[in-house]
Amino acid sequence: MSRRMFHHVLDNVFVWGDDKKDILWEQGINNISGLLVMDQNSINHLPLKKGDQIVIRVFSQYILDRTLSGDPIFKKFGSITREAFVTFRGCDYWNTSVSQRLIPPYKTSSTYPVYPFLLDDKYGDIWISSFQATVRAQGLSHLLDPSSSICSMEDKEQKWYLYDILNATVHTGYGRMLLKEDDDPSYVFKQLQDFYCSQHVPSPTDIICDTSVSGEVSPSSSLLNMKSGETNTMYTSDNMERAHDPSEPSWIDDASSVSSLHD
Question: Which residues, 6+ apart, have CB-to-CB distance to 153 below 8 Å?
């Protein structure tokens, strides 16, 4: 079902032809979980035109906005219409200016950055790196440090902001349990990091990113810009078996909730 919803989004919401769909497929992105696990920097490194990269970014922000506004789209991806998507931010949002490609620092913009979604345990390690890089770009890394003291009102507001982001983007069984157990984002993230990063030997999916003064993420090892000889566990054709796993994410449990996918 994740694959069917993925095709609905590409065919009926993005209205993309086979050439663009093939590019995603070649990168190992062939389901909703793989599409939404990417952070803004990873999207910017896809071999697509800037305008098409922005379409994916806007879609991620659309899903996040729906979730934070109390109208989550999960299990209902098939109900998304192109009209609702295109009007989400208005036509001005579709420009490809440099400013639109930067991750806004905390509270300097009404637009949320592209925070990655964790919908499937098999993408956990990628999500950890993507989430960490986005938090760093927003200047909120201290909130992921369990030893950091949260004293000021601003710190508390930032803490709740990050918890709301985690609550909106983490949708695995283990993640939902942690979010119900504790409202400290540093605790929740640390438990998720320990869980997902201990499942396998460290790989190039452990992205190391630095934040420049402008707020843009500069990867030394991104999902799609690997060093010579390295193999990414998700985004290369050499290991497509993992991305083609027929098992569905834990959040997909109601086939009746998906509307007609092909008019």
Answer: none
pLDDT band at 111 (very low <50, low <70, confident <90, very high): low
Identity of the residue numbered 124: G
Tell me the three state secondary structure of residue 79.
Answer: helix
| Residue 223 CB contacts under 8 Å (≥ 6 apart), including other chains | 38, 42, 45, 126, 130, 205, 207, 232, 234, 235
In the block, which residue shows the tokens 């109900």?
Answer: 79
Residue 195 CB neighbours (<10 A): 16
169 φ, ψ to 5°?
-110, -15
Of the candidates 210, 251, 239, 233, the one whose C-alpha atom is nearest the C-alpha of residue 118 is 251
39 within 8 A of 101, measured Cβ to Cβ: no
Confidence of residue 106 (pLDDT cuts 50, 70, 90): confident
Q: How far apart are CA 18 and CA 2, in angstroms?
A: 19
Per-residue model confidence as pLDDT tens digits over 129-188: 999 999 998 999 999 998 888 888 888 899 999 999 999 999 999 999 999 999 999 999
The pair of structure tokens assigned to 177 is 């349990």
Residue 12 is classified by DSSP as: I
User: 45: closest CA among 120, 103, 116, 101?
Assistant: 101
Return the number of other C-beta atoms located less than 10 Å from residue 31's C-beta. Answer: 24
